[in-house]
Design goal:
about 575 residues, alpha+beta, eight-stranded mixed sheet, two-stranded antiparallel ribbon, AcylCoA_DH/oxidase_NM_dom_sf, Acyl-CoA/acyl-ACP dehydrogenase, AcylCo_DH/oxidase_C, FAD, flavoprotein
Amino acid sequence: MLLNPNTYDPAHLDDESRRLLRALVAFFEERGKKTLVKSYIDRSWYDDFLEFSAREGLFATFLTPSADAAGDPGKRWDTARNAALSEVLGFYGLDYWYTWQVTVLGLGPVWQSSNEVQRKRAAELLDEGHVMAFALSERSHGADIYATDMILTPTGDGGFTASGAKYYIGNGNVAGLVSVFGRRSDVEGPDGYVFFAADSRHENYHLIKNVVNKQMYVSTFELKDYPVREEDVLHTGKAAFDAALNTVNVGKFNLCTAAIGICEHAMYEAVTHAHRRMLYGRPVTAFPHVRRELADAYARLVAMKLFSDRAVDYFRSAGPDDRRYLLFNPMTKMKVTTEGEKVIDLMWDVIAAKGFEADTYFDKAAMDIRGLPKLEGTVHVNLALILKFMPNYLFNAATYEPVATRHDPADDEFLFRQGPARGLGAIRFHDWRTAYDAAATIPNVARFREQADGFCALLREHAPSEEQQKDLDFLLAVGHLFALIVYGQLILEQAGPAGVDETLLDEIFSILVRDFSAYATELHGKAATTEAQAAWALAHVRRPVADDKRDAAVWDQVLALVGAYEMRP
């Protein structure tokens, strides 16, 4: 289940995509661990990586939609192979992933635009090896789209001059194209929004500084009377607002695969170290609590991969009448990334002081994994978004044709014509119980299903009051319980295609049972929780079904990781 550079071959993809991904793995392995670690510690800009990407046409191939590819059959926007690339980059370091990630975001407003001049320019810049940037956030407003102090003043010829500062802009130091969000000085409200394309090399584009103490470029910059020609405008009015949100829908999905890649590399290090380390005459892995923590970490990591891989299928099969991906997207941004933190913490408890050593990958993973849940509005923002889908998801199922596994080399062009970013509460879903029914013979799936059914009963019989619905702290506890049900559904849907055996699936759901019980206990303790809701919470605390044979079989899978991969020196 885990990415192993020694055997890596993404056979589910076409030949050229496989070649590029394998070449990327070879680039990092030939570069070696010593260089990887040193450049991280020295905070060196990764020119060699970007030179490789430019030479191979990596970003150009993966990030140019077919419509802008000038007939090149290898270029397309393919979420399946983009996810594979994101995982590989996360495996070798968050900083490499980050420059790719913000290039994705920078391209979002361009590929959603009908501005042929800028589309052509973006494609040419990618061919030349440039990276891109997405300039939405500001120091005073964060990523609040409703408030921006980037002001565009009309010049009378269809263009503007732009003045204002942007903050926390990835690649903003060096981007060939920066998609900048602002507002007109002469138009009030949403009709005044503008997205335009800028160039970081322009004399009126002033880099202030890098705002993070990292290898990556995360800039704050200021535009002073920057000339915005009519041909530089990507979107105006409500369309600019929608472009911002829809770009996040496409681009921030990559957070989940970055977390997966980071955890995979760290797991090889941690398991190998723990098993080879002798304590009181025995390997550290001989201790029961160590086995439990490493097995938990492994099962959680596999669950992260299963959910994320299945979410890709919903992205690729989306359309105007099927927007289920809009639930699964905040799930990947929130749930998968926070699970990544748990995976690292479990392993860190085992390897202890080793996790601080400068010459390990784990030391970097432990620091970087914290950033992913915080790169998209923090956990509570995504949980609040997830709650919008809860009524229809649980109680108002619709009929859809089954979504197939999508590894076909197709261009996911719908992602750049998503339309208005509204109506989330009206989106319908297929019956979540179907996936659970198909796995009802697996003991802990059945036990978790009891808890899920109980959650539906809570909402029917003791629904949050009007006052509770205004209490975000209370609602977040409810949101965590709901998210587990969604998480389990896609894990079950992907388990068959991924070849996951029932033993490992039972182990994953034993964890979900425990997590549900923990969140139920949290709900019980909230000040806003009523007596009836508190009684429900205690009544739905469950112990997982125990099985020594299952535990032993999963532990064998963990032990198989010992020495399976160590990065070349």
